[in-house]
Amino acid sequence: MARKPDTSAIELKSATLEAMRAVLRSDESSAIAAALDARLGNMPGFFSGEPVVIDCSELPADARPDLPAIRDALGRHALTAVAVQAACDEAADEARALGMAVLAAESAPRAVPAPTPESAPETPAPAPAPAPEPVAASAPEAVVTQAQRRTEIIDKPLRSGQRIYARGCDLVVLAMVSAGAEVIADGNIHVYAPLRGRALAGASGDTQARIFTTCFEAELVSIAGVYRTFEHTASGELLRRPAHVRLEDHSDKQVLTVAALATT
After folding, report:
1. Would you tell me how many other CB atoms lie within 10 Å of the CB of residue 151?
2. CB distance 227 to 193 below 8 Å
3. What is the 3-state secondary structure (H, E, C) of the chain?
4. Which is it for strands 189-195 and 50-55: parallel, antiparallel or unpaired?
5. Which of 226, 240, 244, 257 has a 20 to 30 Å separation from 202 between CA atoms?
């Protein structure tokens, strides 16, 4: 008599994958590699195996991107290609052979935008979305979540390697953000403790978002994808003092400014 298999060794559950999307605007692997080097070459160690969806939706329908070369170019910056979106049939078959998932245009996971150096010109942020209409039962979950929850509060210290993402809302942190930790929010970020890691506000493109902290020791701050890095010895008069970060327009580009925050 055959023994009944034991199914307790594994359990399958639904999950939402937070992934970066690499939108291809060229199918030339050398051009893609050069663009990655230019954008991320001065950020060694910023990513640590972060998942990436290779988005082919802006390429011609018959484009055949060199997926192995693109995967390797991403890997050189510690980015892990896990899926291909909106690819032609041939590219989709190649992606499956490489062990990547194949996604339709409407099924991509929520993406976190790649940071852009503050010296790079930025396109205007999209206009604010209109007030949501009454939500039907089949409406996307993200709309419901944003309408119901406006702030996420973290009251425990974040250790190196930990990441918190407040989707569709502000983030308030009541304990230290250690070096190597990362806090991300679609809205504002408030850290009422030492901020020693990375803080990325306006992650969905909100250029009006800001970052506030009572003790500024950040490794990197970013608003709407425009970032600025710091060395602890070079933070000057703002080091370990209350500060706030915002995005300002300067001629043809947007620049991050870090200023003292009055607390009295």
Report:
1. 13
2. no
3. CCCCCCCCCCCCCCCCCCEEEEECCCCCHHHHHHHHHHHHCCCCCCCCCEEEEEECCCCCCCCCCCHHHHHHHHHCCCEEEEEEECCCHHHHHHHHHCCCEEECHHHCCCECCCCEECCCCCCCCCCCCCCCCCCCCCCCHHHHHHHHCCEEEECCCECCCCEEEECCCEEEECCCECCCCEEEECCCEEEEEEECCEEEECCCCCCCCCEEEEEECCCEEEECCEEEECCHHHCHHHCCCCEEEEEEEECCEEEEEEEECCCC
4. unpaired
5. 240
CA dist., res. 238 & res. 260, Å (int): 7
pLDDT tens, residue by residue, 20-69: 788 899 999 999 999 888 777 666 556 667 888 999 988 998 889 999 99
